[in-house]
Amino acid sequence: MRIETEAPTRIGILGGSTDVDPFNSKHGGRVLNMAIDIKHRAVLTPQECEATLEAMDEKRFFYYLPKRGEDKKFDLIYEILRSYGLVDFDHWGVRFIDKFDGIQSAGLGSSASAAVSMIGAFNEWLGIRQSKEEIAKKAWQMELNLGWISGWQDQFASAIGGLNFFEYKNGQITKQTIEREIAGEFQGWCLLVYTGKTRHSAEVQKVLKEKMEDDSATIYLKKMSFFAEVGTALIRQGLFKQTGQLIDCSWENKKRANPLSSNPHLDEIYNQAVKAGAIGGKICGAGGEGHFFFVVEPTKRQRVIQAIQLEEVKFNIDFEGLKVKRC
Q: Which of 46, 173, 217, 290 would give a disulfide with 257, using CB separation of 3.0 to 4.6 Å?
């Protein structure tokens, strides 16, 4: 018997950072995002010998970790194991492998998709039944338990899939799903590229949290929260050009809310893209480096790619979210 799971990453379109506390708890977060088919994939196989954990990074090297605490790459795995009471993991007969399609620490929410896929696998193995929303909440809680500054949008996008508007209010997260046909049309206006550099989001998020606590970022984050709701309505009406213009405005507010979200390298990429015909765009995730997302009229797509001289990262919208299969 073998259990296989997969969970998508996401592109945050509007409202990113409003799902992070303390702003989220005080004012409520609103985000518009889409799950994409760059995925974490987990394989869990019961076995008679000692338990093993294996993870594969973006360079396709294997890491083995038979003992807890030897490598921080595995902190999230061990936090999830602790949540199931599997503290002495070496005594459980199981082989667990985690693989990722893309590039870690590049703004697509890869840690959340890893957590969602792992929780899906262990739930299936242990016979625990949870909804996708419950799995998303648990994945978010695992990051908070580790002291990470983490919002909830990544986990919900990964678990549920699709193009959605999510809202946090009175402790509850609700969603509005944009129809597949419209989402597919919008994807034709979307361009994702990789800047060639990764970043550690912890320092970027630390500055953001400090600016939330002293309220210096609040005015910008409130605008970004509002933009997420407006952008959802625009996409539903097929007004993709106006959506791009809104993303452009939101990106300016994100940089004001947290100056570390951009840098001269990213500003140059953005300026060249807009000059070549991009309507609007933003860095994915917390910012600093990683993946850049643009809204571009389909006829101008190649012109923008040539102008910024970065390779396009191909993707499709993932409408299924977490998938679990027992073989």
A: 217
